[in-house]
Amino acid sequence: MHAYGTGVWPAIARIDMETQMLGLMQRRNLLISSVITHAARHHGATEIVSRRDDGRLDRTTYAALERRARRLTVVLRALGIRPGDRVGTLAMNSDRHLELYYAIPGIGAVCNTINPRLAPEDIAYIAGHAEDRIIFVDPGFLPIVAAIAPALREMLRAVVVLAPPDAMAATALPEGIALLCYETLMAGTAEEPDWPDFDENTAAGLCYTSGTTGRPKGVLYSHRSEVLHAMVENFADVFALRATDRMLPAVPMFHANAWGIPYSAPMAGTALILPGRQLDPASLLTLLNEERATASAGVPTVWLGVLNHLRAVGGGFQTLGRILSGGAAFPRALMADYAALGVHVHHAWGMTESSPLATWNAAKPATLAMDAQARLDQQATQGRTVFGCDVAALNDAGEEVPWDGKTQGNLMFRGHWVASAYFRQPETSVGDQGWFPTGDVGVLDPEGFVVLTDRTKDLIKSGGEWISSIALENIAIGHPGVAEAAAIAIPDPKWSERPLLIVVPREGCTVTPEEIRAFYQGKVPSWSMPDRVVIAESLPHGATGKILKTELRRIYAG
Ligand code: ADP
Q1: Which of 144, 147, 117, 149 is nearest to 134 (CA)?
Q2: Is 466 a known active-site residue?
Q3: Of 49, 56, 101, 237, which has the fewest Cβ atoms less than 10 A away?
Q4: Cα(149) to centroid(ligand 1), Å
Q5: What is the distance between the alpha carbons of residues 53 and 383, in angstroms, rounded to a whole number?
């Protein structure tokens, strides 16, 4: 029986009605447009810097961007976009992409950000599954869209190139799909209508998981979920962006909405530095320093690259104080290297399915009493659960395992910005209250810090014991001669699986398999030491910068 089944609930309802008559709080929809109107009104002069393909930096402001976004809503409507329609983007981080981030959901349509680094068949699958009616594309990605356009004939009506007219290249598209120029369309209207009001539970964004776990699956965000997620991202114990910050998101706007930064930064009045497609370590470092970035965000591979570059050329960070890293485990040794350069690494964990923020690493009272090594150990964990999302580790019977830092469980989450099902896959529904299975395995410690052991499919099962590939990789990265490492399971007749470690040496270093194996002595139990170590020139990375274990297993498992 419901706790409010009798008596109590009617009383509360009565009070509620009386309060309303006296003047309850205003009820306003949590709409994405409210973020940019706030930024325009209260941080109107704050900069948005965009690096173009030719390296040039263009500058605009929140005030100007908001006006252009409103003009873009006219363009979208003129192209036939109605509430609920999906509109695709295939673009890097730029002011134009940011305009789309506001204009598309701003009229109740759905912004379907697509990862241009995926295989063309995956891109075609996503745009087809989403039924995108228009695709906005950076000039450099136009050939991809042209190649898949015949497969999208049924729904796709136009391809709009995010460029001025002089950057338009002649491209053949199937009949019925128009090739249009973004700046020409924008110049063709002077109208800047107000943002419409509608229900905050309207769909706003659609992002497909990167496909490291099979066919891409769609995650449909709402206005309410995006706004709440961005607000919490700005909590003091989360990313806490400020109006005096200058934020450079190196995480692309097609990867889980650049982790919410396109919404959390304007909300705080933080300047944005958008790096375009030049994400190589040298270009990133130059942009961070020359544009005086105080904060940045990217997957560990990005930060590993920047550090290796700094080691090779010397120098350091002039203004950068903190970075957000997620998407894969950030090695402890790399964290120490960044601390030595004056940069605090915030480790976060989440998935496209959780918008993506689920946990964030920030100190608790007990942390303050720890010595430097213990603090670093804690800083390297995936962090603790943020308000608005809840995390649990469940055993196979569906019961929560104790928070003892030892007992492993299947990590689950639920909350205001966690998917209830995959887009158009009702069979995956967990409903509004259910736990969403992450496919990750981990433990919670007594303070609630999550330590992610592995993705379920990456765990190495040896003789009935589980070996964490992340733990093995973190140790290897701590070796002074190692730049990058990956551990995978290889079949073994006796133990069923055994760990194989693939190591990429640092530039100018040579390492031997024996030396690496010896480095594990005393750091892990003997049965979880890698049996074999392979020295490789590089590791394969997927579309979001993660190491492609599927590919490694294909190469090495035999
Ligand atoms: P995909 O699931 O398609 O790879 P996501 O970007 O949503 O795309 O990836 C989510 C996954 O990335 C998580 O389930 C987890 O395995 C991994 N991950 C994310 N953050 C971390 C982290 N801080 N440490 C370790 N793994 C992480």
Answers
A1: 149
A2: yes
A3: 56
A4: 30
A5: 36
Domains of the chain in sequence order: 31-231 (3.40.50.12780), 459-556 (3.30.300.30)
Distance 330 CA to ligand 1 centre (A): 11
**Global pTM exceeds 0.85:** yes
C-alpha torsion angle, residues 162, 167, 170, 173 (rounded to 10): 0
Torsion from C-alpha of 296, 300, 304, 307, nearest 10 degrees? 20
Q: To test ligand 1's pocket by mutation, which of 428, 452, 453, 477 has the most ligand atoms within 8 angstroms of CB?
A: 452
Residue 353 annotated as catalytic: yes
551 carries an active-site annotation: no
Assign residue 355 a region (left: φ > 0; alpha: ψ between -120 and 50; beta: otherwise): left
Q: What is the β-pairing status of strands 357-360 and 344-350?
A: antiparallel
- Flag residues of the chain having pLDDT under 50: 1-6
Q: Summarize pLDDT for 523-549 with one digit per residue, the tens.
A: 998 999 999 999 999 999 988 888 999
Identify the H or E element spanning 248: strand 246-249
Closest to 416 in 3D by CA, of 72, 41, 30, 69: 30
Residue 315's SS3 state is coil
> Which tokens is 526 given?
């003997």
Tell the burial category of 326 from Cβ atoms under 10 Å away from its Cβ (0-12, 13-18, 19+): buried
